[in-house]
Amino acid sequence: MTDSRYLKRTIIKEEVECNSLGEKRKLRIYLPPGYNEILSYPVVYCQDGEEFFNFGRIATHSNRLILDEGIEPFIIVGIEVDTSVRTEEYAPFGNRFEAYCASITEEIIPFVERNYPVRSEPDERILAGDSLGGSFSLHLAMKNPELFSKIISLSGAFYEPSLKLIATEADLSRLSLYMVVGLQEQNYTTDTGTYNFVELNRRAKELLEERGAKVEYFEKDGKHLWGFWQQELPDALIHFLK
Hints:
With 242 residues, the chain is an alpha/beta fold. It has a single domain, classed as Alpha/Beta hydrolase fold, catalytic domain (Rossmann fold), CATH 3.40.50.1820. It is built from 9 helices and 10 strands. The chain has helices at 4-7, 49-54, 58-68, 86-90, 97-115, 132-143, 160-168, 197-210, 226-241, and strands at 10-18, 23-31, 43-46, 75-79, 125-130, 150-154, 176-182, 188-190, 193-195, 214-220. The strands form 2 sheets. Strands 1-2-4-3-5-6-7-10 form an 8-stranded mixed beta sheet, sandwiched between helices. α3 (58-68) runs parallel beside α9 and α7 runs parallel beside α8. It is globular, with a radius of gyration of 17 Å. The protein starts with a helix and ends with a helix. The mean pLDDT is 96.
């Protein structure tokens, strides 16, 4: 049975005016046990923010890691998405991709840093995402080396345009990635086609390592579902926050 201490979570809902996108964007912000605004905290920025909280149970996992595993307290920022335009925002070939990248770096992060005591060094910020959110997190870090160096990719959707972008980079030694993919993801259909996610992740790993990135990589029994990713989240967080 889940310990009730893990379920006592402080989650604040915010809304940010994103001029880059011409709209407001909702955030969910998790504050750790013992939160004190005079301290400073590492921060995890999650794509598909609503799903990370509802299906990934990231707040419950984080409470347990902080209370029982001795992990340094951290803040989570879940960036919500309208699923009808998700591919347009997350995919490098999407027509909202550049605007969404700008909304994070120019509007969402400044808003969070004005209102919460999060650290601003690249190695104190973690980008996390599942599927297209995982590959997006890598692209955002590649575009903004002064902001990000750590990426959690849960079954990242490393389609050909993404692989080509990685291949154009000369030096990615500043990046550290935690990548996991399910072995039952070899024939998964998305809104843009049917893909072998295992093969795509293997190719992405190879390209990243050839360019000096540090990659912790796992292939495990699992499907392209939150039931798999939820179980993998604690180890991913521990990897960067221990």
